[in-house]
Specification:
Layout: E1 2-7, H1 14-24, E2 29-31, H2 32-42, H3 45-56, H4 62-73, E3 81-85, H5 91-103, E4 110-115, H6 118-127, E5 128-131, E6 137-139, E7 158-159, H7 166-180, H8 182-189, E8 193-197, H9 202-212
Parallel strand pairs: 1-3, 1-4, 2-3, 4-8
Antiparallel strand pairs: 5-6, 5-7
Bound molecules: adenosine-5'-diphosphate and zinc ion (ZN).
Length: 220
């Protein structure tokens, strides 16, 4: 049973780590960013509202984010655990999540804080590409798909997120520092924080996380 939260600045590799962890543990990967992007793609009212904020590098409201997560956590596949990626992103969201978990008699096992410096993160995001269909993450040089522009897993189209531009990434760093970074202390105080250096390869990050969770590394 794993109830995990992935924390860290934009581009730290939360999505990639989540893909790698869900391949290993049978828990759903819940990415508020992916859910919002799917809504944008499908042109839902929620998507239309969210796009304005996302393209500016701003956060959508806590209310919207919490509603998305609550609805998702109610689904059957979350009974065996879950991996939250990109939520919570503000102290208010974390408090609301704690209230929801308390009310359901459950708690988070670990919050994995991925750490890397902003220069490296910028380089990652400028080269990042994402599958339009399944959300898998690629990088033009570090993690290219086998066939250019095509997802290895689902054959979907790979694209460059409209918020992965230098200007928007700078704003997202600012938002991260002011609104999300306080969650590091929040979860340290809850005694569930696991800090991992995310400046190396995705494999390195995965190994460090598995070791930090006290699990066996079976592929080295
Ligand atoms: P990254 O972690 O690389 O910034 P995400 O895909 O997690 O990317 O998020 C993309 C955007 O979606 C954010 O910049 C924000 O606008 C919106 N978003 C995602 N999750 C949340 C959240 N929990 N609260 C508010 N906004 C969110
Ligand atoms: Zn795909």
């Amino acid at each position: 049973m794993y109830r995990l939260i992935l924390l860290g600045p934009p581009g730290a590799g939360k999505g990639t780590l989540a893909d790698n962890l869900t391949d290993r543990f049978n828990v759903p990967h819940i990415s508020t960013g992916s859910i919002l992007r799917r809504n944008i793609k499908e042109g839902t009212p929620l998507g239309k509202k969210a796009k304005e904020y996302m393209d500016k590098g701003a956060l959508v409201s806590d209310e919207i984010a919490m509603r998305i997560v609550e609805n998702r956590l109610k689904e059957d596949d979350c009974k065996n655990g879950f991996l939250l990626d990109g939520f919570p992103r503000t102290v208010n969201q974390a408090e609301q999540l704690d209230r929801y978990l308390d009310a359901n008699g459950i708690s988070v096992d670990k919050v994995i804080d991925l750490v890397a410096d902003e220069e490296l993160l910028m380089e990652r995001m400028i080269g990042r590409r994402v599958c339009k269909s399944c959300g898998r993450i690629y990088h033009i040089t570090a993690m290219p798909p086998k066939t250019e522009g095509v997802c290895d897993f689902c054959g979907g189209e790979i694209y460059h997120r409209s918020d992965d531009t230098e200007e928007t990434v700078k704003k997202r760093f600012f938002v991260y520092r002011s609104q999300t970074a306080p969650l590091i202390d929040y979860y340290r105080n809850e005694g569930v924080l696991l800090t991992v250096d995310a400046s190396f390869t995705p494999e390195y990050t995965l190994k460090a996380v598995i070791a930090g969770l006290g699990l066996q590394n079976d592929n080295n």
